[in-house]
Specification:
Elements: H1 2-11, E1 15-20, E2 23-28, E3 32-35, E4 40-42, E5 45-48, E6 58-63, E7 69-74, E8 77-80, E9 88-89, E10 102-104, E11 113-121, E12 123-134, E13 141-145, E14 155-165, E15 170-175, E16 185-191, E17 197-206, E18 211-219, E19 224-234, E20 241-249, E21 259-262
Parallel strand pairs: 3-12
Antiparallel strand pairs: 1-2, 2-5, 4-10, 6-7, 6-11, 7-8, 9-10, 11-12, 13-14, 14-17, 15-18, 16-17, 18-19, 19-20, 20-21
Length: 264
């Protein structure tokens, strides 16, 4: 799934070209989307009419806003910033061919932002690349509050929880008829130590038998959706109700199955 998404992004990347004299540099024009914890390559290529050796070449990657050095190649030697040690690399066998791309390993939320690629052969050029981070949200879980001694007509809160995603999600609730009832919810999103978001959304409803409520968590950047369904059914006597969830991740259109679990 991730590779398909990233391939789609790279497929639509247009190259933004810069030139000065005999030197031309190209980088992606649209943001590069990286999956949290995975490796990503920031593409930067250059061409020149000059005859040069690697000893003539300098490549410097910086954070655009702070100008902090990330990785430097000069006089055939590599140097990494302390904050990126063991996480960055160039492609040494490709430098002579004009490939100045940067490999960034195990991307973190704090890596998100703009990187600048500098290339120097007698003269120098630079170009920025925007990096965006993304992470998928977990399948939501649903819980009734309270969840015991319920009967039709009681007011209850249905809580939907999903975690580990980035950037912030959008949450929608629907009733059994498909009507959007999102205006009746309270949603909070809190970042954990890694910068990933835990989402909790609560809707208050009047309990009725044979009614269904669905919570949909959407990650717009990854074009992913995952949802949970809560169906309230009358079992035997009218005052007895049973609540279940059917969770179906929408990011996999081929998966038509649903996993059910009893609400606790």
């Amino acid at each position: 799934m991730y590779s398909a998404i990233l391939s789609a992004y790279f497929a639509v990347h247009l190259l933004l070209g810069h030139c000065r004299g005999d030197l031309t540099i190209q980088v992606p024009e649209v943001p590069v989307v990286a999956i949290f914890g995975k490796d990503v390559t920031l593409n930067c290529s250059f061409s020149t009419n000059l005859n040069f050796s690697l000893g003539d070449l300098s490549v410097i990657w910086q954070l655009t806003e702070t100008r902090q050095m990330v990785h430097k190649y000069s006089l055939r030697q590599d140097q990494q910033a302390d904050s990126f040690v063991n996480r960055t690399a160039l492609f040494p066998d490709e430098l002579a061919k004009g490939n100045a791309s940067l490999l960034l390993r195990h991307v973190r939320i704090e890596d998100e932002g703009s990187f600048t690629c500098f290339v120097r052969i007698e003269e120098h050029l630079s170009a920025p690349i925007k990096l965006q981070l993304a992470a998928s949200y977990s399948k939501p879980s649903l819980h009734l509050e309270p969840n015991k001694n319920l009967k039709p007509g009681d007011e209850v809160a249905i809580a939907c929880h999903s975690s580990g995603g980035y950037p912030q999600a959008t949450v929608q609730w629907h009733d059994g008829k498909g009507s959007n009832i999102t205006e009746n919810i309270t949603t909070s999103q809190v970042a954990n130590e890694e910068g990933l978001f835990d989402v909790r959304s609560v809707i208050r409803v009047t309990l009725e038998p044979n009614s269904t409520y669905s919570c949909l968590v959407r990650n717009k950047l990854l074009n992913e959706e995952t949802q949970a369904l809560a169906t309230i059914t009358e079992d035997g006597e009218e005052e007895e109700t049973e609540a279940r969830t059917a969770m179906k991740p929408l990011e996999n259109a081929d998966d038509k199955g649903a996993e059910e679990e009893v609400l606790e």
